[in-house]
Design a protein that fits this description.
Blueprint: H1 3-25, H2 31-50, H3 59-79
Helix pairs in contact: 1-2
C-alpha cells in the first residue's frame, strides 16, 4: 500500500470515528444514526479525492509534490 493511499484511509477513519463518538456522546445510541454520522463525515474528503483539480488530493497535488521534491534536491546539492 503506498503512502498516499494509507494517509487517505487514515484520514477517512479518523473522520468517521470522531463523528461517531460525537453523536454517541450527544446521547444518540441508535447504531444506524451513528453510522450515518460517520459516513457523512467522510463525504467531504471523498469528494475532494475524486476532484482532479483539488490541490491536496487531485492531479495538481501530484505536480506540486514533484516540483517540491525537485527543489529540495537542488537545495541539498547547493548546500554541499
Amino acid at each position: 500500500m503506498n503512502t498516499k493511499l494509507k494517509a487517505a484511509i487514515e484520514s477517512y477513519a479518523r473522520s468517521f470515528v470522531v463523528a461517531a463518538i460525537a453523536v454517541y456522546s450527544a446521547g444518540e445510541t441508535d447504531i444506524k444514526a451513528i453510522a450515518i454520522a460517520g459516513l457523512a463525515a467522510i463525504a467531504g474528503p471523498a469528494i475532494r479525492a475524486i476532484n482532479p483539480n483539488d490541490p491536496s488530493f487531485g492531479l495538481i497535488a501530484n505536480v506540486v509534490d514533484a516540483e517540491i521534491k525537485t527543489l529540495v534536491k537542488k537545495s541539498a546539492k547547493k548546500k554541499k
